[in-house]
Amino acid sequence: MTTVGEALVKALEAQGVDTVFGIPGVHTVELYRGLAGSGIRHVTPRHEQGAGFMADGYARVSGRPGVAFVITGPGLMNTITPMAQARADSIPMLVISGVNRRDTLGKGLGHLHEMPDQLGVASLVALSAERVMTAEDLAPVLDRVWSGFAAERPGPRQVEVPLDVMPLDGSPITSSPVIESVLPPAADIARAAAALADATAPLILAGGGARFADAALKTLANRIDAPVVQTVNARGLMHGDPLSVPASPSLEAVRRLIEQADVVLAVGTEFGPTDYDMYGRGGAPWPKHLIRIEVDPEQMARHPVDLPLRGRSGPVLDALLSQLPAAEVQKNGATRAEATRKAARAELDPAMTAQLEILEALRDAVPGAIMVGDSTQVIYAGNLYYDHDRPAGWFNAATGYGALGFSIPAAIGAAFACPDVAILCLCGDGGAQFTLPELMTAVDEKLPIRFLVWNNRAYGEIASSMEAAGVEVVGCHPTPPDFEHVARACGMPFRRVAMKTGAVVGALLDLQPAAGPAMIEITMPN
Fold first, then answer.
1. Total number of domains constituting the chain
2. Where's the Thiamine pyrophosphate enzyme central domain (predicted)?
3. Helices 377-384 & 460-468, crossing angle to 10 degrees?
4. CATH code at 207?
5. What is the pTM of this model?
6. Residue 94 is part of a domain; what is its CATH number?
7. Exposed, middle or buried, 330 (CB in 10 Å: 0-12/13-18/19+)?
8. What are phi and psi for residue 136, nearest 5 degrees?
9. Whether 435 and 306 share a structural domain
10. Residue 457 CA: distances (Å) to CA of 434, 462, 518, 526
11. Mean residue pLDDT across the chain
């Protein structure tokens, strides 16, 4: 007999899932029955929040849904924060949980891990939340999940299986989801191509939705000679290209560039305030004429658009290229981009400029590395201005939902998605303390991650915000642990250096390569 739990694992394997992150419990034992004989690798974090952030990091660099297995009740609740971060950043994540027996649900009988309405809680955050009530429900539920991942806006999805359903006889799933391709009408593609070709000062705004469409994006940008402004989740798409503007649209220089463009093509970007109006200047700088590529019709309807092109970035960009003249034109794009880069970088204060120089030195010292960040000052600097050297290689939780504790587990997830790529985890002493136990997951798995901890012994950004508002600073100086002792307890190499470019890069190179993780503490003024 094949149980529902076993059939579920086989269905995941059939969809190409190769790694799951989870902590087993009594409510998911039957789910784990099928793992041992599968080709799926199981990774054990130290907390379900870590499982969710690992799934997020895996998805960001692979482009495939990250999968987490969690127990009923507290396990699912501990994963809600990572699900919210994934929803804010449009990251595909599948959370599979247990739930209590069907005849007890919603009755408040005092069963282990019981919640009044677990599915209702999950549905407030996940793009979809479904319960498998019978063995026959499993196949259609999973079909809807994978269809959603393929055709709709990426984000977290949740499936829960009751304790008494997991061991039922569940025949192997042979069906496949019916996936409808979404492409704009040919007439709209032709209109958009004509508008871009005729523009005198075209501009492209690239967001996280363009993360895996870098080749088409570069080709189109050079075809129409348009500068490309990249939000945080799009950094690395245009590295070194004369048309690249790797700077936040919240900066005045970038806002001017947008306002001066006569036609703007927005590719996979939601126009959220953390990217476009971080300083509260009255909203995003709105283009004169906007063509927007967006897969989600609800997102498309939130802002006025002159020409909406519904679909995923890659296929729509390819369709536009097929309608544009093959010859590249000159519209002063490189000059506009260069002027904006210089002006945007000049807006950074001296402290941020020093942090940016360290980021650039790290990038050059370890080419092609993936940098995963938390909400910390060096990341804030990089989010305002930084040109990474690979697509999907710069990401953090300092935009959108903004959850602390993201970087350590997300870096671990990224390491499983790209095992042959160097991973640099950049976190502050405050954020690191949210998920320090996950360091041992990296040790168990012998992951060659370099954990760089910027230590100013404070929630420095919050303290500065309190001071600027005339509020007495309270609660912003939790004592950090001795990170050297933390590293020693985890059995990993350690270096402590001052926040100077040569010292930081020297420590990093001194610890490269190695068979497992290592930690560098960077002491900062506070």
1. 3
2. 189-320
3. 80
4. 3.40.50.1220
5. 0.95
6. 3.40.50.970
7. exposed
8. -70, -20
9. no
10. 14, 12, 21, 7
11. 93
Q: At which residue do the structure tokens 């941020």 appear? A: 352
Determine the number of helices (DSSP H) and then strands (DSSP E) in the chain: 22, 18
DSSP state of 3: B
- The strand order across the sheet containing 263-267 reads 244-245, 228-230, 202-206, 263-267, 290-294, 307-310
Any residues with CB less than 8 A from the CB of 12 and at least 6 apart, and which? 20, 40, 67
Amino acid at 376: T
What digits encode the pLDDT tens for the residues 43-55? 999 999 999 999 9
Residues 6+ apart with CB under 8 A from 67: 12, 17, 19, 20, 21, 55, 93, 94, 95, 96
Is the pLDDT at 490 greater than 70? The verdict is yes
Cα dihedral 479→83→402→482 (10° resolution): 20
Between CA 486 and CA 496 the distance in angstroms is 12
Tokens of 166: 């997991």
Task: Name 426's bridge partners.
Answer: 373, 452
Spatial distance between the Cα atoms of 128 and 145, rounded to a whole number of angstroms:
8
DSSP string spanning 377-415? HHHHHHHHB---SSTT-EEESSSTT--TT-HHHHHHHHH
Instruction: Give the residue carrying structure tokens 């009044």.
Output: 116
Q: Please give the share of the chain, as a percent, with pLDDT higher than 70.
A: 99
231 & 371 share domain? no
Residue 345: which of 244, 480, 269, 274 has the closest Cα? 244
